[in-house]
Specification:
homodimer, 171 residues, mainly alpha, 68% helix, 6% strand, DNA-binding
DNA sequence: GCTTGTTTTCAATTATTCTTGAAAGTTTCG
DNA sequence: CGAAACTTTCAAGAATAATTGAAAACAAGC
């Protein structure tokens, strides 16, 4: 396969993959493009490669920066801004885990906490099933929270090793 | 908080949570409703509780069944079908991991395989960066594949324990 | 402080995804 | 078999999310 075709397929597939995980297609595609670009790209280059508008490029690049997956790079003598993606795939994964945890798990846990103390007769099976379910989800979430924290803190090559340490005391 | 309010909040939040992960709101809400219902519910009950149409209820219940999170239950003397969700949250998580792996990782790996051998000069930095990136993603995916397989096979209470065994040999 | 190049914003538009509801299909039972 | 109860399908419509493009804001250099 030629590079141009392979690039196009990778970008398309990565975009489709992203949409399955609640990430907008363009954001995932820009990420894909930057992952395979040896040098930083300008917003114009991104717009041209993906055939998207300036506003769209700008918005999704900013979002990628918010996620910690892309950073602005200044190139001496150039007035434009350039963008470059973190290439180390372990760091990319860790960063995504970190952000998702922050945006979702850390938000969900207090809510579950609150929901876990409904008023009412504990003998009522509706009350009982509700509180049991919420408490189980809460416990699960708290365990996941700890696990993910350790993963996030772990040094990239000790990523797996640290999981061992984490769980060694639990089983 | 009263049960009715807590139920409503849980359903709404679970729905919002689902949409962040590429799952449609209604499907997540039906799942939430069934998780906190002590007894199986009929399609009509689901329609009424969530104020959704028959078609919508039917479609999303089927989808939940496809995901292995809900099953049809026959109640003696009743002609209607009833639906019940798996309540054990560990099994729920494992089932979701299993399905997502099947639908996405198992599809992605062969694609990465194919993309990893582009024609062209390996000295060309565009070719090199492309193949390096694809290969790194591929290696990462294969590692994830193995890890998830072990998690999926693991008995619920040995879920974490088995992770220890898995990684013990790798670090 | 003006001009030019560049980035950001955001209301309007477009694309995508979800939902409805009625018709067709299926099952059960007298 | 035929009617009643229930489930499934799917085209049309509604809701949601993404994208555009032009105007505003900003920055650099003269």
């Amino acid at each position: 396969m030629q590079l141009a075709e392979a690039k196009a397929r990778f970008i398309a597939d990565w975009g489709r993959f992203g949409t399955n995980w609640g990430i907008n297609r363009t954001m995932a595609q820009i990420h894909a493009l930057l992952l395979i670009s040896p040098d930083p790209l300008s917003a114009d280059a991104v717009m041209e490669e993906l055939a998207i508008s300036r506003g769209n490029a700008n918005m999704n690049l900013r979002e990628l920066i918010d996620w910690g997956l892309v950073r602005k790079v200044l190139i001496p003598g150039e007035r434009k801004e350039f963008f470059s993606a973190e290439k180390d795939i372990w760091r990319v994964a860790r960063q995504i885990v970190k952000e998702r945890k922050k945006r979702e798990l850390d938000v969900m846990i207090p809510v579950l906490q609150e929901l876990s103390d409904v008023e009412g007769d504990k003998k009522d099976k509706h009350v009982k099933t509700f509180t049991d379910t919420i408490n189980n989800i809460r416990k699960f979430s708290e365990q996941a929270d700890k696990t993910l924290d350790t993963m996030i803190k772990a040094d990239e090559h000790w990523f797996f090793g640290s999981l061992v340490k984490l769980f060694a005391g639990k089983s």
